[in-house]
């Protein structure tokens, strides 16, 4: 039976493209018809992504954006930052829906983009035309949109840890300190001096402390959720994991903010969410969500000291799935009117 929709991946040679392809190949309603890439042209997908060997006859093709999406309903972009922005106008003219995994259309302020991405945006007139693709906050807007900017991996992790407090107005004017640990697949498929196995295995190190490009994205999103005047102090840490992110957010709160109140806020925010859960008898951990589109969130409450107490909010996800390609597929499902959970319901592996 023919599937209802057709999709193309543009930029399919990396880890994000591989995960998109894997999800689309088992999707009940969307057919993957084309994978564009300037690398590995003519080679089958399985030659580059071994898990797809034998799963499809598709090969990588060197195509213009318009050629890539011919006859398609949706384009899924897995291109690097600054590359995507140059290709989007052609896709808009082609009349397809777009889900973009890069950071090129998440921010609304061109000056902020230039500061954190190191170059002027080539199409600042398009900033603000993409809906920010965090379904737990913007599901209704995604449903009505044609263009979605899927969030970054760190951004998704940290936003979901703090979203219940932002919605409750508890983060107005608050300075939040965050440390988030990430796996090596977040650095992409091409090894670099600081990211390949000999220097990464058995090692912990920080990078881009207090200036990571996801900071303005997180602040913008939490502000939209109700956290006026929030400030973020974020230190990312590179860890010897293949995949996964674990974030710890530190906040100083009034003494009356206790575990019962926080539990109510988290449960109200996520009880109906298909991919976010709060474990009741443990705190979040990466191995519980790796390989899946699920997120775990939780919190711990410190003792009262001078009418204040420290609150720590935790979250864990798979950076390639809910932090990347899985969330892009989730956004695609919402855009097309498919079951939001389609091709994403697997629970991952244990251990």
Describe the structure.
The structure is a single chain. This protein is α/β, with parallel strands linked by helices and 351 residues long. The chain is built from 11 helices and 14 strands. The protein has 2 domains: 125 residues, NAD(P)-binding Rossmann-like Domain (Rossmann fold, 3-Layer(aba) Sandwich); 166 residues, Dihydrodipicolinate Reductase, domain 2. Helix content is 30%, strand content 21%. A 7-stranded parallel sheet has the order 3-2-1-4-5-7-6, with helices on both faces. A 7-stranded mixed sheet has the order 9-10-8-11-14-13-12. α1 packs across α11 and α7 runs parallel beside α9. The longest helix is centred in the last third of the chain and has 16 residues.
Number of strands: 14
- Tally the structural domains: 2
Shape: globular
Approximately what portion of the residues adopt beta-strand conformation?
15-25%
**What is the H level of CATH, i.e. the homologous superfamily of the largest domain?**
Dihydrodipicolinate Reductase, domain 2
Alpha-carbon Rg, integer = 20 Å
- The CATH class designation of the largest domain is Alpha Beta
Helical coverage, percent range: 25-40%
Q: Number of helical runs?
A: 11
Overall residue-averaged pLDDT value: 95
Largest sheet: 7 strands, parallel
Structural class: alpha/beta
Low-confidence stretches: none
Q: What is the CATH topology classification name of the largest domain?
A: Dihydrodipicolinate Reductase, domain 2
Give the name of the CATH architecture of the largest domain.
2-Layer Sandwich
Trace the largest sheet across and list its strands.
Answer: 3-2-1-4-5-7-6
Distance between the termini: 37 Å
